[in-house]
Amino acid sequence: MTIVLAAIAIALAAQPSDAEAQVNGVLNLFDGNGDRALDGEELFALLSFTATLNNENPDNATMDEAEVRATARTAMSVLDKDGNGKLDRDELMAMHP
Ligand SMILES: [Ca+2]
Ligand SMILES: [Ca+2]
Questions:
Q1: Which ligand is nearest to the CA of 39?
Q2: How far is residue 59's CA from residue 92's CA, in Å, rounded to a whole number?
């Protein structure tokens, strides 16, 4: 779980420092279907981005696709408090201290 949250924190760190602005930024970038929540595939896209964030060569990504998939599943199970399979703004905000 620590690794999962660290991965998401890295992605969030690319956004403005205000927590709400960060969540809005993540949704603006990764909410592909516009429902203002991240489903499994959108979370996968976020984590894929994170895995390659500091690395220009995808071959040297910090996680391979299977690891990103597993991480996305774990993150969803940890963060999806209402169990609807999507991370809404409140659930994303909960990642912030
Ligand atoms: Ca969405
Ligand atoms: Ca949810």
A1: 1
A2: 29
Residue spans per domain, the chain: 2-93
Helical ranges in the chain per DSSP H: 2-13, 19-30, 40-51, 65-79, 89-93
CA 20 – ligand 1 centroid, Å = 17
**Which fold would CATH assign to domain 2-93?**
Recoverin; domain 1 (1.10.238)
**Which ligand is nearest the CA of 36, by number?**
1
pLDDT in tens, the chain (97 residues): 466 677 777 666 655 568 888 899 899 999 999 999 999 999 999 988 877 765 566 565 577 889 899 999 999 999 999 999 999 999 998 876 6
Gap from CA of 89 to ligand 1 centroid (Å): 11
